[in-house]
Amino acid sequence: MLLFENWPIASAVVVGGVILYAAIVMLTQIPAATKAPVAEEAAADVEPPRDFTLDQLREFDGVRNAKIYVGLKGEVFDVSRGVHMYGPEGPYAKFAGHECSKCLATMSLEDADLDALDPKLNPGEADQLDEWYHTFKHAKQYPVVGKVSVPPTYEGLSVHELRAMQRAALDAPPPATRVHTPLLVGVCGVVYDTSYGGYDHYGPAGPYHKFCGHDASRALAKMSLDQADLDDPSLEGLGPDKLKILQDWENLFKRKYPPVGTLAS
């Protein structure tokens, strides 16, 4: 289903520009009653920029989470103030919690066009996407709250390779598609990228930064930040109580962070 009905070709040539302009105005307009009285109040509601996976972004649909986020050209915009358009009862509710570049570029509401991070567009569609991006980017009511991306994956890493990868990541600027540098933590044989939503905890100034680049299973089970526990990933000698703590940590990681690889046994 298209955003707008197909017009006869002759009419489309005449009014196409008017339709696009009207659509942009409609999607970015906010009723006066919902606008914050001063810019500072609107800014106070904005979360610090973070990284999102596509799955994490889907949580911000106005239902599972009260905030409504929409991705466009890899950036994530907070459109919560446009709830009349993007909320559960709005005409563009389908965009909530999704990357919608291809949909806006091609004027489509098809599910298959959602979450395309690198859509193949013709020149006209690319220009139209740039128009949408410019409107979202410079509309103060739609602040940027992060970026959405698909993390790379790594299989069968040794603990030495994991440490080397983390050191290299910290020594380099974040990738262009990311807000933060990857923060890799191994738990029970799986590597998670905690930079997707966990930067405050695992970033360089975070309380759990020492876990990055390590198989942290033993340290988590013992609730320890000792280097000796980080350097020894074995679970040997841990009792049932410690293993239960580790299981709780593993469940938390599975729930909050994307798995991006495995550790060699």
Spell out the blueprint of helices and strands.
Blueprint: H1 9-28, H2 39-44, E1 50-52, H3 54-58, E2 69-72, E3 75-78, H4 83-86, H5 101-106, H6 123-138, E4 144-148, E5 154-157, H7 159-171, E6 184-187, E7 190-193, H8 199-202, E8 214-215, H9 217-221, H10 227-231, H11 240-256, E9 259-263
Parallel strand pairs: 1-4, 5-9, 6-8
Antiparallel strand pairs: 2-3, 3-4, 6-7, 7-9
Q: Can you put this structure into words, describing what you see?
A:
- By secondary structure, the chain is α/β, with parallel strands linked by helices.
- 38% of the residues lie in helices and 13% in strands.
- The chain contains eleven helices and nine strands.
- The longest helix is centred in the N-terminal third of the chain and has 20 residues, at 9-28.
- The radius of gyration is 22 Å and the shape is elongated.
- The chain starts with 8 loop residues before the first helix and ends with a strand.
- Residues 1-43 have low confidence and may be disordered.
